[in-house]
Amino acid sequence: MYKKILLPTDGSGYAEQEVDRVTKLIADDGEIIVLSVAGKLTSSAFQSRSKVKKVNERLLKEAKAAVNSMAAKFDDSLNVKTMVKTGFPAETINQVAEEEGVELIVISASGKSGIHKFIIGSVAEKVLKTSEIDVLLVHNND
65-89 b/e with 16+ CB inside 10 Å = b? Predict the structure, then answer.
């Protein structure tokens, strides 16, 4: 049993499988940290600051909704903490895991479809390859 587990989420529809795994692995007095990482765009010559600001606000809003939705799937008896960060997903996941002293990261093999599936899969792969903390890669059955 693990005392502290990090559960990154992108808001995809695989929460039940991840919640099931984490619930089985967390110690009775353990803590689950549900994390969503919102990307952050910067303005350029091709995009106005106001448009970039609106996109960043939307990304942050989606990240907050994702952690709240995931956290709500856990039984109230469990100690669940939510966290939203901005940055590059894989790097931020690893940074939070180290800062919070987690013992295990539970992450989905893929999330969304199309190009998002490639990106999310890449995040999980990068976390798996670069983390110094144990990683459980959850295979999602489509």
Answer: ebbeebbebbeeeeebebbbbeeeb
